[in-house]
Specification:
186 residues, alpha+beta, Jelly Rolls, 7-stranded mixed beta sheet, 3 helices, 20% helix, elongated, disordered N terminus
Length: 186
């Protein structure tokens, strides 16, 4: 049996790919050719850089803290207090597992630019109204969604944000498609 021991450290590149400042490779009775070790180091280095970049960049792009805000509808002057979510994990969780939601409270979802996200009511125990927003205008409303349903809830128009509130909120407060509002971060 052929045994192979590698002690491969990620190389640090200086100037060009041809100048390595640190490679420590110990090869004993191996089937890997020495010229392939440089290629292996390069591939590991690229994976390392990608891992660091993806890991660190998401921490700075999506800091993990709770943001609060208020939404004031122009025609009625009604103020809605919202939790603002924008990280992929918080968007996915939404209002799941909550047993109740206070009146005049909701959740504002700020969507990534590159994606349209469909909603569903998985693990959501309270019926909701979902308002789909583009800019400062309500472009679509899905009223009285069914708790625990796995049916996709889609907007008929493109949107950049969505608001989840208690079912009946839109009817009670006369919120309609085309209404304008202001968002204020608290």
């Amino acid at each position: 049996m052929v045994t192979t021991h590698f002690f491969v450290f990620f190389p640090i590149l200086m100037g060009t790919f041809g100048k390595w400042t640190f490679i420590n490779v110990q090869i004993r009775k191996t089937l890997i050719k020495p010229e392939n070790v440089i290629l292996l180091n390069f591939i590991l280095y690229i994976f390392y850089i990608l891992y660091i970049h993806l890991n660190l960049s998401t921490k700075y792009i999506y800091p993990d803290y709770n943001m609060k805000g208020t939404i004031k509808f122009n025609k009625t002057n009604i103020v809605l207090e919202v939790d603002i979510v924008y990280t992929p994990s918080k968007i996915e969780k939404g209002l799941m597992f909550r047993k109740r939601l206070n009146q005049d409270k909701g959740m504002l979802f700020v969507m990534p630019d590159y994606k349209t996200i469909h909603f569903w009511m998985k693990n959501t125990y309270i019926p909701l109204d979902i308002l789909f927003i583009k800019g400062d205008t309500v472009v679509d409303i899905k009223e009285n969604t069914t708790p625990l349903s796995l049916t996709k809830i889609k907007s008929s128009k493109p949107y950049t944000m969505a608001i989840e509130v208690n079912a009946g909120y839109c009817k009670k407060n006369n919120v309609k498609v085309g209404d304008k509002f202001h968002i204020k971060k608290v």
